[in-house]
Amino acid sequence: MTPAQYKEKFDVGFLMSEQSRCHVSEGLRRRPRRSRKVKPGRYEPRTRDRIIADLRAYARERPQITPKKLEETHPGIVGQIIALFGTYTAGVRAAGLGEKLCRRWSKEKVIEKIKKRRADGATLNAASVKKADSQLYGAACKRFVCWGKALKAAGVHPSSVSRVRDRSKKAVATDLRSWARKHGPLNSKALLASDAMLATSACRWYGSVENAAGKLRLPFYSPRKSRWTRKEVISGIRTRRTKNLTLRPSRVLREDRKLHRAACKLFGSWRKAVSAAGINYNKAIRRMDKEDVMKGLRARHRRKRSLRPKKVSEEDPSLFSAGVWQFGSWPRAVEAAGVDYRTVVPARWIPSIILREIRKRKRKGLPLTYKGVRNEDYRLLTGACNHFRSWGRALAAAGIDPQKVMPGRTHHRLIRR
User: Fold this and answer.
1) Terminus of the chain with fewer CB atoms < 10 Å: N or C?
2) Distance between CA 124 and CA 160 in Å, rounded?
3) What b/e sequence results for 354-376 when a residue is b if at least 16 CB atoms lie within 10 Å of its CB, and e otherwise?
4) What's the angle, vertex CA 393, arms to CA 391 and CA 398, rounded to 5?
């Protein structure tokens, strides 16, 4: 079916508007392209004079002009140079910059440059040359396949300039002896810090630096702590006993792992170490029951020792932990021992207690100034300020004139408000 026959059979023109029919009959007209604005750093049309000016400005800051680097800063300029001057070289020479063209390396030039570096005392290993003179390194690899062959062509053996050291057993032994003469006795940490390659080579050939020192008959120093002895373990166990610290193995393992491990290593087990220290193991690890806790609390109370939780946990941690474990909390343990817990820990600061404490301080001749009370009884000061809004008001409520206690202060103004 031809297009004309298809149009006659399936004519849909009656469904289109008059404007649409015009477009279909005449064909869609393409919209004219908008002129693109040249963005900075993009392609720009240049004349011969503009190209020469750009080349001279570019060459002021660079020793050489290469097409690749020039194209990065001036897009399209290389193609324009070739179009206007015939070749890239001709364009650069027209700008009077022929000496800044990238020089072509021949084998003779590469060998000459290598010999010159050697005469100047510069390093000739691959990494140093690649960093210092990348063009020489690239030309050598291009002309001689690799840097080592370029060195051989210049009469230099690659092993004489390589930074890779000889790691044979004989060379390692020689280096260890020279290190010991220079730095003193061998030390694993110091050797690793000063010459890591030598330390790893010594471990590779001898197993460790200490073994190397022994086989080479060199002095060796180890900063490690001296090993535990039986006397030290027994002394550590008795010290824990005198400090009322528990001797239960699980707690000792958490609190003093070194002591526990040394005891097990020297005596076979923690039980044998405790028995060797003259301590009954069964009594030492037995957890205190309620009767034992109450006896301990009553004994502290008779000796007028503090029963505050902080003090007891510092002085007798086993008693404190057993009391909390058996009674659920420390106040319940103290009450079960027949001691009023309110006498152990003072009640909250209420006005009557605050005024009583202030009067007591006056009778005892203790300082009542703000700074003095803050240094000696900070809780009293904070309680007074919370209830009376200031220390001067608390003194006035206790029947004490703040001006006599703190002359020159303005607490009387707070009282008059």
Assistant:
1) C
2) 9
3) bbebbeebeeeeeebebeebeee
4) 95
Is residue 378 within 8 A of residue 396, CB to CB? The reply is no
Phi, psi of 248, rounded to the nearest 5 degrees: -65, 130
| Cα–Cα nearest to 52, from 39, 41, 65 | 65
Taking only the tens place, the pLDDT of each residue in 308-328 is 888 888 888 878 888 888 888
Separation CA 158–CA 151 (nearest Å): 6
**Cα→Cα distances 109→98, 106, 113, 143, 160, Å:** 19, 5, 6, 10, 22
Q: State the pTM of this model.
A: 0.31
For the chain, give the number of residues.
417
DSSP count for the chain of H helices, then E strands: 31, 0
181 phi, psi to nearest 5 deg: -65, -35
Q: Rounded to a whole number, what is the largest CA-CA distance in the chain? A: 127
The DSSP line for 359-375 is HHHHHHT---SHHHHHH
Structure confidence by residue, pLDDT tens digits, 111-152? 988 898 888 878 888 888 888 888 888 888 988 988 888 988
Residue 326 near residue 287, CB atoms below 8 Å: no
Alpha-carbon Rg for the chain, nearest whole angstrom, is 47
Neighbour tally for 165: CB within 10 Å:
13
